[in-house]
Write a structure and sequence with these properties.
heterodimer, A: alpha/beta, Rossmann fold, 6-stranded mixed β-sheet, 18 helices, 20 strands, 33% helix, disordered N terminus, B: 307 residues, ABC transporter involved in vitamin B12 uptake, BtuC, 12 helices, 77% helix, globular
């Protein structure tokens, strides 16, 4: 049975949609996130929702899943009009979400986590019983996870599998993947694609939310493109081309994306950052970084690739002075002086001219209740005891213009900005203060394509023109491949492969998952 | 020898019981993510309530049951205010603490006058080995049951989940408010019964301010045991020993030519309440194992724009 025969573009359907959204509106203070969005998910299809960051994809999904309530519009599940006000409602209607950040509780075991979702187990039933049930079901579905292992010990892919198993146990008719495959290496991605196809063949539907066009092209039957909160259109994947979808997604801004390679320096300078035998613990007290050694030269970009949760975050935090190094040393060579900065604390480190870009700007990078100016003034390299507000204001104004940050004024509170603009404030501040080195973790997460290009180019050009050395860890392998001079692959806390730029993607991925 | 050990156990048991049960209650409450700053007010109020009820019903067990239930309802109020509305855990906890102190005097002071004027003899529990050992056994059994509840059942997993990551728990299908209400109710029932036993098994009478401070000691016991019901047995023994044998320690020290003020002796359990958690957090291995729930004391918003 070919699924293609089910679909047509002009509204006539040979199958009733399993989920149907009609005229959804949702606004947040200062932003309209969804404008009159309608969507149909048919039985037995893989339906991709494609859009840039901030296009409204995750708002749409959160409405379907009952996390947000729409301001206007109707939802139909199986042809019935429903009001979905909680994830439980959505699950009852047959929709289960697998998100990019697995919604599992780290300190609980797999069985404990899943027991919370399974209504057939009452509150007094023992976890051991749930464990046994999971073992049986896991075998049946071919998803193998140890039910008694604590979730924090699992790899990212394993956590995704737990979520998939959860969806199956809840008898999902539609499984929504919210950017869940975006960060996976290709081999792991394939496993999930295979699963999606299998699920489809059994009559289930998949809603694949992504900002990566190739991903949507590779696996979906239909694609709905969102731009700035509106549906641009729905197309059949087999009848469209990559360029068409790109145009739908970016419109006239497409030209800004078509840019050539980055200018790179051929010769690098002397070593600036020297790390020797570094050991760092994770939040759970086990070693997350196990004896890593490397050095980065002036003007060089070291990219750290790896599946999330292999010690990259802990390594970056130790370099930024935010996490204790148990053993080993971190040294900087600035103007012929060698400075030991191991465990010297972030204020001292950042005064030396080290920039730090964390991911999750809301949690770790900016203070939401303060203005853009205040968020800039707080940096120890820009301000010591007294704040010169005039200087701060003019710097803020420059940065807002240079980075095209969308804000009412430099005095506006950070919380009125969208996620992408917040990230830009952070990146702008850090690139300004980075004189010696820049340490970054997922520096472009949450940015749209255009801003992503801009930030990457800026990092590379600062390295080239000002001789800054850069250590960047990213879960996005494309990013690492694009900007790094040297690529180190981190796996289980160690560097398991170090490559020159120009290495093939397959080679890097092979080491990432081995 | 065996007789001496038994005497020590019997002497310490009442203290152990009224500290351990309250610390168990605190662990349950805090495991669900609610910062339990109201504990000392609730404890003091519980002592006053059981005394007041005893004057009327003159049956210690009935007074204990009603007090436990009423203090349990106070817990429900705290869970509701901090989770549903949501108000800062600090503001709610400390306000209820002071309301508890005030209400305790308001209720029990007239009763204490009545008891004295009418020469009412209060029917409390007898401090005889059979009774004391029964309560000791009961409290340890309740400790083991609490352990099983927290670590072996789905309800326990849900309680820990809402304390660690309420947003995640909610996405998994848990009603955060409901679970917190259940956890604080059970926790405050234990705190209520602990405070009742403080009066019924230990002081046997009431005076202004009675019970004040014991809530905090139980809080410290719970914290320094990492909110673990079984580890709490050991820390409760340490604190019970300090309370029971502080004066003995004073005498022993005098024998060595060291004299310490009685005021310091009285303060010893409180000094320990500061010192023991400090030691626990200073040892890295213990600090991690005994770490508080990640979302303890934080306000939980159910609809929040995420970026």
């Amino acid at each position: 049975m070919s699924t293609q025969t089910f679909f047509s573009l002009n509204g006539e359907k040979s199958l009733n949609p399993i989920i149907s959204a009609r005229g959804l509106w949702k606004s947040f203070p200062g932003v309209v996130a969804l404008k009159d969005v309608s969507l149909d998910v048919l039985p037995g299809e893989i339906h991709a929702i494609l859009g840039e960051n901030g296009a409204g994809k995750s708002t749409l999904l959160k409405i379907l899943y009952g996390i947000y309530v729409p301001d206007k519009g109707d939802l139909f599940f199986g042809g019935r009009k429903v009001v979905v006000t909680s994830p439980q409602d959505a699950v009852r209607n047959g929709l289960v979400l697998v998100s990019q950040v697995p919604q599992l509780i780290d300190s609980l075991t797999v069985a404990e986590n899943l027991s919370l979702s399974l209504s057939q187990f009452g509150y007094v039933s023992s976890v051991r019983k749930v464990s046994k049930f999971l073992l049986e079901k896991g075998r049946e579905y071919g998803v193998r996870v140890d039910p008694d292992i604590e979730v924090w010990k699992l790899s990212y892919t394993q956590k995704q599998l737990v979520e998939v198993l959860r969806a199956l146990l809840l008898n999902a008719k539609v499984i929504a993947f919210d950017e869940a495959t975006t960060l996976l290496p290709h081999a792991e991605k394939e496993k999930l694609y295979d699963f999606m196809k299998l699920f489809k063949s059994k009559g289930g539907s998949v809603l694949l939310v992504t900002h990566k066009i190739p991903e949507a092209m590779e696996v979906s039957d239909r694609i709905t493109v969102l731009r700035r909160g509106e549906v641009v259109g729905t197309v059949r994947t087999s009848e469209t081309t990559l360029d068409q979808v790109r145009y739908m997604m970016f419109g006239e801004r497409l030209t800004q994306l078509n840019s050539g390679k980055y200018e790179k320096l051929g010769e690098k300078g002397s070593e600036v950052l020297v790390v020797r035998d570094l050991w760092v613990r994770s939040d759970y007290g086990v070693y997350a970084v196990k004896g890593v050694s490397f050095s980065v030269r002036k003007g060089e970009i070291l990219g750290i690739a790896g599946v999330a949760g292999n010690g990259q975050l802990e390594l970056i935090q130790a370099l930024a002075g935010l996490r204790k190094s148990e053993r080993g040393s971190i040294r900087l060579r600035i103007n012929g002086n060698e400075i030991d900065v191991t465990n010297k604390g972030s204020t001292a480190i950042r005064r030396l001219g080290i920039g730090y870009i964390p991911d999750e700007p809301v949690k770790k990078g900016v203070s939401l209740d303060n203005s853009i100016e205040e968020n800039i003034a707080v940096h120890p390299r820009l301000t010591r005891f007294l704040i010169r507000w005039g200087d701060v204001k003019s710097l803020a104004t420059d940065l807002v213009r240079e980075f095209s940050i969308v804000t009412p004024s430099t005095n506006a509170k950070a919380k009125v900005l969208s996620g992408g603009n917040l990230m830009k404030v952070l990146v702008a501040r850090e690139l300004t203060v980075s004189k010696v080195a820049l340490v970054a973790y997922n520096p472009t997460r949450g940015l749209d394509e255009v801003s992503t290009r801009y930030v990457r180019r800026l990092i590379v050009s600062k390295a080239v023109s000002e001789g800054m050395c850069v250590v960047v860890a990213s879960e996005d392998l494309d990013e690492i491949m694009e900007i790094s001079d040297v690529i180190a692959v981190m796996n289980s806390g160690s560097f398991v492969g170090v490559f020159k730029s120009g290495v093939s993607r397959e080679e890097v991925e092979r080491v990432m998952v081995s | 020898m065996i007789g001496e050990i038994l005497n020590v156990i019997i002497a310490m048991s009442p203290i152990f019981v009224f500290l351990y049960l309250a610390s168990l209650g605190n662990s349950l409450v805090e495991k669900s993510g609610i910062l339990n700053l109201a504990i000392d007010g609730a404890y003091t109020l519980g002592v006053a309530l059981v005394f007041t009820l005893l004057v009327f019903v003159n049956d210690p067990t009935l007074a204990l049951l009603i007090t436990s239930l009423l203090i349990g309802l106070l817990g429900v109020l705290i869970a509701f205010l901090t989770t549903k509305l949501p108000i800062s855990h600090g503001a709610v906890g400390l306000s209820i603490q002071f309301v508890g102190y005030g209400l305790a005097s308001f209720l029990a002071y007239p009763m204490s006058l009545k008891v004295r004027a009418e020469r009412i003899s209060l029917n409390t529990y007898l401090t005889i080995p059979e009774v004391v050992l029964t309560f000791l056994t009961l409290s340890v059994v309740i400790g083991v049951l609490t352990y099983l509840l927290i670590y072996r059942t789905k309800l326990g997993a849900a309680i820990r989940a809402v304390g660690e990551n309420p947003a995640g728990a909610s996405a998994l299908g848990i009603n955060v408010l409901k679970i917190r209400i259940v956890a604080t109710f059970l926790g405050y029932v234990l705190i209520g019964s602990a405070s009742s036993l403080y009066l019924l098994l230990y002081t046997k009478n009431w005076q202004e301010g009675l019970g004040m401070g014991y809530g905090w000691i139980s809080f410290a016991i719970s914290l320094s045991s990492g909110r673990h019901p079984l580890v709490g047995i050991a820390t409760s023994i340490i604190f019970a020993t300090l309370i029971r044998y502080a004066y003995v320690l004073q005498d022993v020290l005098v024998g060595y030519g060291i004299s310490i003020s009685t005021f310091i002796v009285i303060a010893l359990p409180f000094i320990a309440a500061v010192f023991i958690p400090l030691v626990v957090t200073a040892i890295p291995q213990l600090r991690r194992r005994f770490a508080p729930p990640k979302h303890l004391g934080k306000i939980f918003f159910s609809e929040e724009r995420s970026v």
